[in-house]
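Tutorial handout. Part one gives the primary structure; part two gives the three-dimensional structure as tokens.
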Amino acid sequence: MAIPAAAAAAYRAAAAITTPTAGIAPAALPGGNFSDFLSGAIKDSINTIRQGEQAATQQVAGKANIVDVVNSVNSAELTLDTVVAVRDKVVAAYQSIMNMPI
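Part two.
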């Protein structure tokens, strides 16, 4: 049953978004532009996925704690799901704009 684990991960991610230490400084959004925000979010996503891969590799070698590996891989999976959901929304918005009459 992966649903309870995914729900718990989603809850933790939502709680992290509301805290100021969620990876984005509160002052960075109002003063910065959208492209900087998007670029930072993509870099954070890539780093999270890499950390999950590194933790899994260390576990295979017998050098990592299983709890840390599960947390890292779960975080990477949640990040990937978020990236896919955002991509789907962007594609849907693009298709909606392309279907508008002129």
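Part three, for discussion. DSSP finds four helices and no strands in the chain. The first helix runs from residue 3 to 18.
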